[in-house]
Amino acid sequence: MEKYSVVIVEDHLLLSQAIGNIVDSFSKFKVLYLCNNGKELTDKFSSLQNIPDIVLMDINMPVMNGIETTKWLSERHPHVNVIALSVENDDATVLKMLRAGAKGYLLKDTEKTVLESALLQVAKNGYYHTKNVTNLLLKSIHGEPQDDEIHFNEKELTFIKLSCTEMTYKEIADKMSLSPKTVDNYRNRVFEKIDVKNRIGLVMYAIKNKIYFP
Hints:
The chain is α/β, with parallel strands linked by helices. Helix content is 50%, strand content 13%.
């Protein structure tokens, strides 16, 4: 079975290698090569054999950053799909990458299964957008959110705030005088509401939306 080729553009070598190992573990994908920055990638593209199906692109890099590189690819190699893979989660940066031509946007704390799903959807459909990114795009086009504001009850808010501390889920359950199973239910419900997959995503959401102040 022929595999989709992937190039990783990331200036942190160990992280780049780790991401490469993960991608190589997916049955339908193979890593073509790694690049330290956008300039290294554009130089590689002078040879046809170095042009991949998908590029996993960091944003903050020296020499030539991810936004500049994505725009370059969109103009010269529009058939190459770019997925942003970054720690940046602010709306302005996400929109800049999408407007530059990125077909998807993932945070570096993304789970392995989500990364594989994103790669598959981009390979087959040409794009991958989470609910948050879709809402952001709609908001940028229409000037207002398209979904109702997310509401949390008092217990959910307490859970969110405690989750932003160093407490374990068991300690949170004790603090809230709830069973661990009930806290697990709160966690799953909150994760679903705000469309995140893990505690890091929850903390980022809480800080961004001023639910928790570090």
